[in-house]
Specification:
- It comes from Panicum miliaceum (Proso millet).
- Its main location: membrane.
- Keywords: Ion channel, Ion transport, Membrane, Transmembrane, Transmembrane helix, Transport.
- The chain contains 15 helices and 2 strands.
- By secondary structure, it is mostly helical.
- Among the domains are: about 50 residues, no CATH class; about 210 residues, Phosphate transport system protein phou homolog 2, domain 2 (Methane Monooxygenase Hydroxylase, Chain G, domain 1).
- The protein has a two-stranded antiparallel ribbon with strand order 1-2.
- The longest helix is centred in the C-terminal third of the chain and has 42 residues.
- It is elongated, with a radius of gyration of 32 Å.
- About 20% of the residues are buried.
């Protein structure tokens, strides 16, 4: 009943007005007729102004909103990739980003507009389906819902961009030397992904079909190159020094047998109760977990510091180098965690490429239902070469 709330309210006011006026005059019919005529005149004037004099179409606003969000997400994607490769760091993370409020950060505002556009799209859709054919929207029952499907698919990609931005905001960061190894492939995926988004946004804005059905070919190739590089340099993303052949075999055997960390802990407790010393592997795991959770050396601020009322107590973002004054075990633990953050960023980027297929499918469905224009083929270049020595002779003779 929410879309009809205003009409229901006007009906109640009109009924009360007729009843009160008729009670004093006794002319219920005359009062109701005059009231109906006034409502009809007001509706005719408003429709005439909104349609003929100064039209404001909800469908056009919905169309422009979808096209604009493509550009915003593309800018955020490029900004996240460039910022990550340049080791971008926030000296002070705005508290508005921490609580998901509007901020002047361009990386944040780009994808945030697309994520929050759901309610606005539904509101505009509710008005657009009642509009008559107008402008480029010349068919009855125009497929406005297909526009919202495109917006929903784009929003699904925006969540991946949000996660990429979260890697930049993360407290655990990969060292610059590790990022440089994958820099070319990551940058290529970011550029091609943003290129696809911009082209789709332009196609939505100009209401033109795709000129090529293989629009995702380049970005898929870039993602495959990144995946191959990860496979080749996978030793940079894990701490291979701790895993020799025997430990690897033991770990695989434990996974196959379904041994969990809880069972290990229970076994250690039983060994302590029985007076049996835990193994070296178990001691190392316990030491790593305690040092990672308890060490506060890398705190950006101390445990009592706050940012606009938000307490900070996690290790600060920084690269891990051998000259850091950390214990050897602690340094390797943080170094391993930092390498995993690079793997997280790369995997999220590949996931973003996978989600682009949904956007292309939704756009193709929209272009078919809305009868978008066919793409204009670019004219082929006309050759200006003289054709060789024989053509020169013919021109001199006059043939």
């Amino acid at each position: 009943m929410k879309p009809y709330e205003y009409g229901f309210r006007v009906f109640l006011l009109t009924f009360c007005y007729v009843m009160v006026s008729g009670y004093n005059t006794g002319k219920f019919t005359d009062t109701a007729t005059s009231r109906f005529i006034l409502i009809a005149i007001g509706a005719a004037v408003s429709l005439g102004i909104n349609i003929g004099v100064y039209p404001i179409w909800a469908g056009e606003d919905l169309h422009n909103l979808i096209a604009k969000n493509f550009t915003g997400v593309a800018k955020s994607l490029e900004g996240c990739v460039d910022g990550y490769l340049k080791c971008m760091e926030y000296e002070r993370i705005p508290s508005k980003i921490l609580v998901y409020q509007a901020s002047d950060d361009p990386l944040y505002s780009g994808y945030r507009a697309a994520v929050e556009a759901s309610a606005q799209e539904e509101t505009l859709l509710g008005f657009a389906i009642w509009e008559p054919p107008h402008g480029p929207y010349k068919t009855m029952n125009y497929p406005w819902r297909s526009f919202t499907k495109v917006g929903g698919a784009l929003r699904h990609c925006s969540f991946a961009v949000m996660a990429l931005h979260g890697c930049i905001l993360s407290e655990i960061q990969a060292p610059p030397e590790s990022r440089k190894v994958f820099a070319a492939e990551i940058e290529k995926v970011g550029q091609e992904g943003a290129k696809v988004l911009r082209e789709l946004g332009d196609r939505v804005k100009t209401m033109t079909k795709l000129s090529s059905l293989d629009i995702l070919f380049e970005v898929h190739m870039a993602a495959e190159e990144l995946q191959k590089k990860i496979d080749e340099k996978s030793y940079l993303l894990v701490n291979t020094e701790r895993w020799d052949a025997s430990k690897q075999a033991q770990g695989i055997k434990e996974v196959l047998n379904g041994t969990s960390a809880v069972e290990k802990e229970n076994r250690n407790k039983e060994n302590k109760n029985e007076g049996v010393e835990p193994t070296n592997v178990d001691q190392t795991l316990v030491h790593q977990s305690k040092s990672f959770l308890g060490n506060s050396f890398l705190n950006r601020y101390d445990s009592t510091s706050t940012i606009d009322g938000f307490k900070l107590s996690w290790p600060a973002r920084r690269s891990f180098h051998p000259n850091l004054p950390l214990e050897d075990e602690d340094s390797k633990t943080y170094e391993s965690a930092s390498a995993l953050s690079l793997a997280t960023f790369a995997s999220l980027l590949i996931e973003f490429v996978a989600r682009l297929q949904n956007v292309v499918n939704a756009f193709n469905e929209l272009s078919e239902k809305a009868n978008f224009k066919d793409p204009v083929e670019e004219p082929t270049a006309v050759g200006t070469s003289d054709g060789g020595f024989l053509d020169k002779i013919r021109k001199l003779v006059g043939f």
